[in-house]
Structure formats: structure tokens, C-alpha cells
Amino acid sequence: MAPHTVEPMLAGDQSSEEESSSEEFSADSDCCFKSWDLDGVEPEQRTAAGLARMQYTVFLSHFFVHGLVMGGLSATGVGVFYSYLHIPNYIFSAYFTIMNLPTMFGFFFGLLSDSRPIYGLRRKPYMVLGWAICSIVLVIAAAMKMPEPYYCVGEDGNYDKSVPPCNPTALHSATPIIACLALSILGVVIAEAAANGLMVEYTKQESEEKRGSTVSLVAMASNTGRGISTIIVGVAFNSKLYNGSFDWGLSFNQVCMICGTPAVILCLSLISIGVQEDAVMLADKISFRGALKSAWNGLRTKAVFCLVMFISAHQIVGGINTTASTSILVTWAGQRQLQRVLFSTAGYALVVGSVWMVRRYFLESSWRKMLIISTISMPLIDAVPTFLTIFDVIRNQYFFMGEELLTKIPIAFNSVVYNLIVAELADEGSEALFFGLVMSIRYLLDPVSSVLSNQIFGMFHPDLSDQQNYIDDTPAFRRTVALSYVVGYVCSFLCLLFFGLIPDQKSQAQQWKRYLSARDLYAYVALVPITVAFAYAIVVLVLTLDSATACLTFVGGQGC
């Protein structure tokens, strides 16, 4: 089959030679790994084809660096917030939700990318801007002075928990750290909104049987980056101050510098090489109003309504997880930073392998079946080491898998399927807007599941957030912890009820888009509950972060 083409159009350089040479570039994502036969091709055409390959590599590098930065920063979470600053479980969860708030504004940045091209380009300028912000903030974080740790440090380098804490106010010092991490994520989100629009454009130009190859490559690049940064940071960020095993190790500031370096390199690559996209003519520009109308028309369709309802149910119900997992990992399993990172890296390796198999063998397979298999299998696999650890049958840091393996594969499969569905449902010219809209709805609901988890498991007694209960390790408390895991697993299985809301494959997605009805009611029913739920979650999170109200049972505390 003849390859589809993407024209490598650079701003201010649209000569006929480049337009003709761009036909040598295949939009099929396998193009980057083929040896092209350029014998007899004119030098100008050969140069354009080489530039197209380089630009596609930069495009994939964006997702690799995205995974590298996000994976590296998230790998520091337990060490910095739980061990170094000694933040309680439910506040620890709230902090991470606040840190990821910028991900909820992908719709707005997608709207900007689609409707406000800069120098005729819709994607490259916003990618450069986003990575520039991320780089600058990470450099600032690298220079920021860290507070003293909560516990006193003993002569052996470990924390001496037998004496009163040396810095009891350490848990209140997390705000500047969270602010820097949130701003760096904001930069990533700006770049990601534009890159996702480009990904949808590439996907739409793939042949029917190959459609999904770019989406799979993107998932593989992102998770490879996460895996590499996790193991690098995990081995080096492994001092006893951060729940590690070594007497030496990187500081949090040094980790920020390590994560910022590839961001700077990518930013410079985007400036000098760019990504492959068509320049936007003045007549093709979309107004803000036109872009918003396009988004509203999409929400009015039953196909998009079903997708939004599926995402809502999956994020809220499936996102309810016990707040005891971190304490089990650290206190009962005795898992240190290095071992946790090894499990996390194994999880990313499984994800990359799974996505590669999907790309190689299962692009035409049922999306529903793939998600059902991953949803059922992962809790069943995780339950064995978890319950053996809870009831002290086997407590070994190498045996306990925890959430590192439980969550990654279903999340990766969900992301791949979401991207494939969006690629089929998005209208031409509003790819970033539509993708950002769907992803914003997805991320808007993350705080809801976090808040519900804090509130549900805050009612369990003995208290799941009290570290002393894990030290006392009574039979009654073990049963309470086990029950909290059962509740989380049941919520995961309840998601199986909603898989009928997504199309089974590309052809059905196209049929839904073409033939299902469109009504304003669908948009209102989709948006109003999500808006109310998000507002509710934000109120609870703000109360959680205020020391005067964090103890309220309403937000998961034990009462003031």
C-alpha cells in the first residue's frame, strides 16, 4: 500500500522543491526505522527527507523527555514528602493532586495551539514555550534551599525516631517545593497540548490497518523515558535521608537539575530542528469562538458523551485506592528507595513490552477486551503479595509489588485506547483542542477520586494514616488494612460495568461519530456533574492543605 504523506513545511520556506520532496516522507510511524532508498533522488529532496526524519525523531523525543522528567520527579515523592518531611498519608495524597492541577488545563492550551498559530505554526512555538518554562523552573528548584528533615539524624545516618523531631514544622515547608513542581508540570502540559494535537494529525494520516502505530510509539517513548529516569534517580537518590540504603546519594536539588537538563536539550532541538507540521494560512485560522463552537459540537454528539461518561466512571470509581499503600510499602515490607525503584522500573518495562505487542499484533483487536483483561488481571496479581504482607506471612521488600506494578499497565492501556478513540473522533483542524478537552475531563476527575479515597478510608478504624498503628501491628489493624484493599479491588472491578460506553474498534468509532445523534442535553449532562465534582474536590483539597482544617473527618482526618 502506498504510504500516506506528511509535508515537512517550515515557516517562511514553502518552495515547490520542498513540497515535492515531502512526498518522500511516510506518515506511517514505521518510517523512522526504515532504510529509505534515496538513490537517484535530487540533493534537495534528499535533504528534505532527512530533515523530515529528524523532525519526527524530535517529535518522539518530546514524549521521551516528558516521561523522563515526569518519571524522575515522581520518583522523589516518597523520599522527599513521606520520609524527609514526614507528611501524613492523606495530606501526601492531596499534595500530589495539587501538584498535578496544571494537567487539567490541557483543553485551554489545546485551544490556543489550534486557534492562535505563531508565525504560521500551531505546534512548534507552544512546545518550545512549554519546555522553556519547565527548564527555567527546574533550574530554580535546583537552586532552592531545602528545609531540615523532620526527624533527627542519628550517628549511623538513619533517622532517630526514638527522640522528639528536630524540625516538627518540616511538613509545613512543602509548599515551595510543590509550587516549583506544579509550575514545571505546567510547562510540560503546554508543550504536551501542542504535541498531542500533532500526534492526532499524524495518526489520521496513517492507513486504516496501521492506524494506531504513532499512538503506540508515543506510549512506548513516554514509558521508556519514565523507566530510565526512575532507575537513574532511584539508584542515585537513595541516601538514608530519603528512605534509601546508602550513606551517599543525590539531593532533591540535584535531581531537579538532572531532570532539567534533557528539557533544555529538547527545547534547543525544537528551536533548531522543529517538528513536521504544515504552515497555517491566514484563511485557515480558527477563531477562539469557532474553536469553542467546535468543542461544544463535539460534546453534543452521543459518541463523545459515551466516552466522557466512561472516563468519568473509570477515573472516579476505578481511582478509589486505599491510603495505606505507602505505609505498607515502607513500614511492613521494609521497601527502600532502591527496591521501590526496581519494581517501578519493572512496571514500566512491562508497559513498554505490552504496548509494543499491541502495536505489533493487536492494532485490530478489540479495545474493550484489552482493557477488560488488564483491569481484571492486575488486581488479582497484586492481591497475593499484598495480603501475604499485611498478615505477616511474608514480609520482604523484594516480594511486595504494591501499586508500582498494579497501576501502570491498566493506566498505559487506558491512555493508548483513549488516544486511539480521540484520533477517530477529532475533527480536522481542532485536534489539540479536542484531545485537550477529553484529557482535561480525565484529569479534572483525578482530585475527585483522591478526595473520595481520603474520605472513605478516613472512616476506617484504627486510623490508616497513623504511622504508630503500623508499628504496633495488631491483628485488628491488619484486618482493617486488608478490608481497605478489598474495597479498592472491588472499585476496580466495578469499572467493568462501563466498558460498553466505548467503541470496540476504529470502524465502530467512525460509525458512532457518523450516525449517532447529537443533542445539547448530552453536553450539559457531561459537563455539569463534572464541574460540580471538581469544585467539591478542590474545596476538600484546600481544607486538607490548611493545618487548621486538615484534621477534619470530612477531609480524611481523625477529628479536630
UniProtKB/TrEMBL annotation:
The chain crosses the membrane at residues 63-84, 90-113, 125-144, 174-195, 215-237, 252-275, 303-321, 341-358, 370-391, 482-501, 521-545. InterPro entries: BT1, MFS_trans_sf. It comes from the Eukaryota. It is found in: Membrane. The keyword Transferase does not apply. The keyword Transmembrane applies. This is Uncharacterized protein. It comes from Polarella glacialis.
